[in-house]
Amino acid sequence: MESELIEKPNRTPPLLRISRFLLHYKGRMFLSLSLLSCLIAIEMILPQIIGSTINGLRISSEIHRPFDAKPFVLLFISLVLVRGGVGVILGPIRNRLIHLTLSDVRLAIYNSIQRLAFRYHDKVNSGELINRSTTDISRLQEFLLACLLLTLDIAGSLVATTVFIFLIHPALGWLTVFTAGPTIFLIVIYSRKLQPQWKSVHHLHGTMTTIIQENIAGVRVVKAFAREDAQIEKFKTQRDTYLHDLLKTVNYWASRVPFAQFVFGLSTPLILWVGGSKVIDHQLSVGDLAKVIFYLMAINHRVGMIGQFTNIIQNANSSSERILEIIHEKERLIDGQKIAPEIKGEVQFCQVSFGYKEALPALNGITFTATAGSTIGIVGATGAGKTTLVNLIPRFYDPIQGKILVDGVDIREFNLESYRQQIGIIFQETFLFTATIAENISYGRPDVTFEEIQRCSRAAQAEEFILGMEKGYNTLVGERGVSLSGGQKQSLAIARAFLMNPRILIFDDATASVDSHTEQLIRKAMQDLCKGRTSFVIAHRLSTVQSADYLLVLEEGRLVEQGTHEELLKKNGHYVSIFNQQIRKEPAFPS
Ligand SMILES: Nc1ncnc2c1ncn2[C@@H]1O[C@H](COP(=O)(O)OP(=O)(O)OP(=O)(O)O)[C@@H](O)[C@H]1O
Ligand SMILES: [Mg+2]
């Protein structure tokens, strides 16, 4: 169905689309535009005063009468003062408008990144996302601060000036149009050609950021394999490609804009020539010719600026496109309307199939029922689909076929937040934020008391090692803090899950990497945590799951066996062969 809905490409330039964020501040926008119009009006009046003064002087000198220039001078000075005053008021209003707008864009990106489905995060790397939320925002900021009002000022001044020149003498008006027209046309053509080039430059910049980001995150692997030189070489190659494309783009612009400006530069000598002959023929006064020249000088100055800021606009335009791609990304789950009531915990998979990529199913027709409060052990070889299966329960992904029911309700009907709050997950890899141990434990419920945090740490068998640290619960962990072992991280993740008091618990393959003492502790904590909740426990060691109420055996995405430990032993099938393999490898733990 979705493929039938072919979306029309949006032809509005991205910069214009993103500028709609400015409309959140209509009052400030209106005030800025009014003050800007005021400035343009003053710019239009000043040449009129100069021209009228020259006309007055000429008439006075012809009829030998003294000329009173005082009113003209006073008016000129007053207007210049008003212009200064308006400029002083406009600056802070504009700055506030732009910084508020940029904050909104940043928030929109951040919101989007938080809400996007796992499918999106699977295909986009984090360096690219970081680049879009920082560098691209800076390019937009450069445009908004330096060019937004200037662009409107130039557009307004160009139109007003042309109209005034037409009013003074139509022939001079046409001369202006015939020189300004081709100039603007050429600049638009050059800019269009630049748009894809800038996009490619920004993409290369994103790739460069990804290399840096991966190098920082994977610094240990790089060093362990002594690949520093190879990494530096890889970065250099990427940097050279980026530099090459950047220079090509900038030089393309730099070599063509002067030509466009030259075409408009012809307007002043042409008007002096044509206008001068009209003055001699008494069709135009000297003062009026002076007005036209002053108008032309004003736009010439602005056309000169176009060359500099079109680059900024192009840059900001392609950055806006990259920002809007995130904000409007459709890869997100459709939230259900129903606020999830307190879950009892019966979980049913009905013919569930799922694939990360269309052609390759990771799960195929999975059907089973987990009764409320039971512990479900999931076993299978690496890559069998265990993590994939449990990832469907909190709706990290939706099935391609079939449905998952919790207490008889299709989970897609539930409001995600109210549903996920009742699920506790201990991931295969524990991620800790740069925060204190206490803050990491209370991440899901930041408002709990310290006593609660202590109680959960004790239940998770984590208190011993926490108190062994110099700052106890206030120890900073995560990327910038103390490094914890795999088992310690896992204990914190269990404490974090305890605190959420979830109705459904998912425990993904944790104890494989820890020593047997820590494993015993974690197993004890897990058994306590599982009590009274529907729990899905994935483990590579059968000893961890054989006490489960019900077992699922996965093989290449298919549920090949299910039942209790005893039932599966009797079947003498896949489970038994895995069991036998492991019994041979390790002595079973006393349960
Ligand atoms: N984000 C992803 N994008 C694409 N393919 C994926 C993704 N995650 C997993 N897969 C693929 O799906 C299949 C099942 O992976 P899954 O992680 O569920 O296995 P597993 O049983 O949990 O393995 P392990 O015991 O090693 O953790 C694998 O072939 C894997 O390559
Ligand atoms: Mg896994």
Topology at a glance:
Elements: H1 14-18, H2 26-63, H3 70-115, H4 118-123, H5 126-146, H6 148-168, H7 170-217, H8 219-224, H9 228-265, H10 267-280, H11 286-327, E1 347-354, E2 363-370, E3 375-380, H12 386-391, E4 401-406, E5 409-410, H13 416-420, E6 423-426, E7 435-436, H14 437-441, H15 450-459, H16 463-467, E8 476-477, H17 486-500, E9 504-508, H18 516-530, E10 534-538, H19 542-545, E11 550-555, E12 558-563, H20 565-571, H21 574-585
Parallel strand pairs: 3-10, 3-11, 6-9, 9-10
Antiparallel strand pairs: 1-2, 1-4, 4-5, 7-8, 11-12
The structure holds adenosine-5'-triphosphate and magnesium ion.
Adenosine-5'-triphosphate binds next to helix 12.
Textual characterization of the structure:
- This protein has 591 residues and is α/β, with parallel strands linked by helices.
- The protein has 21 helices and twelve strands.
- The protein has a six-stranded mixed beta sheet with strand order 6-9-10-3-11-12. The chain has a four-stranded antiparallel beta sheet with strand order 2-1-4-5, with no helix packed on it. A two-stranded antiparallel ribbon has the order 7-8.
- It binds adenosine-5'-triphosphate and magnesium ion (MG).
